[in-house]
Structure formats: C-alpha cells, structure tokens
TrEMBL record:
InterPro entries: UCP028291 (IPR014543). This is 2,4-dihydroxyhept-2-ene-1,7-dioic acid aldolase. Pfam families: DUF2218 (PF09981). The lineage of its organism: Bacteria, Pseudomonadati, Pseudomonadota, Alphaproteobacteria, Hyphomicrobiales. It comes from the Bacteria. It comes from Methylobacterium variabile.
Amino acid sequence: MTHSRAVVGTAHASRYLQQLCKHWAHKFETEYDATAARIALPLGEARLVASAEALTVDLAVDDPAKLPDFQAVIVRHLERFAFRETLDFAWT
C-alpha cells in the first residue's frame, strides 16, 4: 500500500470535507462528520481530517502508479469547492 499526505491550510476545512463527501456519497462508500471522513474510491481510499486551520488529506492506493491520478482527482474537486481561495497541496 502506498500513502501520500497533504496538509492544506484553510479556515474552511470542515466545509470542504463535508462538501466532498456529500458530492461522492451517492456514488462511493463514504463515512464522515464535521471533522473526519473516509471515502472509498476506485483509485484508493481517502481519509480527511479538518481542523480550525487546515485540511489534512491522506491517500492510500494499492498500485503506486495510480497515486498521481488520485491526487489530481482530489485536488480538482477540492479546488472547485474552494473557488474563493487558493489551496496549496504539497504531497509527501
């Protein structure tokens, strides 16, 4: 299993976490509340944690070759929800 993490500074972490989960809940298995989430996608599993100052995104994939695509999907969706601010994703 290959893992990747990004800690994204934002005061709206909880809102973005919930929007992402609601967006995918009709299609994928999701579990979430205001501060934590798990989303099972075909590319892998995403876990998110919201704090007052950041959204932490942890991704896990079985195939390391899928990681860049998974990161791009998450970034694209979160940036769409955060159109009023610029989010900085530094994956480690």
